[in-house]
Amino acid sequence: MKSKFKMKKILLFAIYVIAFTLSANAQNLTDVVYLKNGSIIKGIIVEQIPNESLKIETRDGNIFVYKISEIEKLTRETINNKATNRRNSDYVQSKFNKPQGYIGILEIGGGLGVGNWAADRISLNIINGYRFMPQFAIGLGVGLETCMYKVPDWGYEKCTDAIIPVFLHLRSDFIDGKVSPYAALNIGYNMLLDGNFFEGLRLEPTLGVSFNVGRERIMAGLSFVMDRVVYATKISGTYYDDTAMGHALKLKFGFSF
Fold first, then answer.
1. Least confident residue range of 22-31, 158-167, 223-232
2. CATH architecture type of domain 2-94
3. Do residues 110 and 122 lie in contact, with contact meaning Cβ atoms separated by under 8 Å?
């Protein structure tokens, strides 16, 4: 009788040990998503739609959604220790959140005119493009901008032109990380919506910083605007068309998605 009771206790203890071991091993496993762009995301897969998409939650609570076409392979791996967990979490967070694919950018800005044809600015830009890698993206943009200025040497009060810039957008985020300095260049043409002078070639280089916020990228930058100005000048009683460049320093904020 005692022998049977003792055997039963041993069996229950063995079952407990096996269950505890399996539970511990399960807690030490993590889902790993290998992306075709080279990124590796570690966490728990919380949703999977066959042949469509996958949602994974990292250990620090961030959730990422990927199309099945973006994924190279899925595995489960053992978490060795806390230090490894921290490294894995830091790795996920340090990567550029959308290193490749379609990008949409929305920017707002304002600035002060500098130089002879100084024009203060308020602007809104919308850009659609493609990011080939964090270090290179290209797109097409359109905007709406007001130019508030005073005509040099004419004694006019401040006037306002409303323009629609249409431009090619080139940009580079220098570092493949969650925070990076960036450079951008808009090259295009200003279409005069209302006003008299600011129509023609437009150049706008920008330097700034961008950083991850979930799946979006927030950015802030300082740009130098150069616009062609067409005006009339009087020589010997006759008016002739002449050109100049209007300049401004502009602070811009935006996000990409």
1. 22-31
2. Roll (2.30)
3. yes
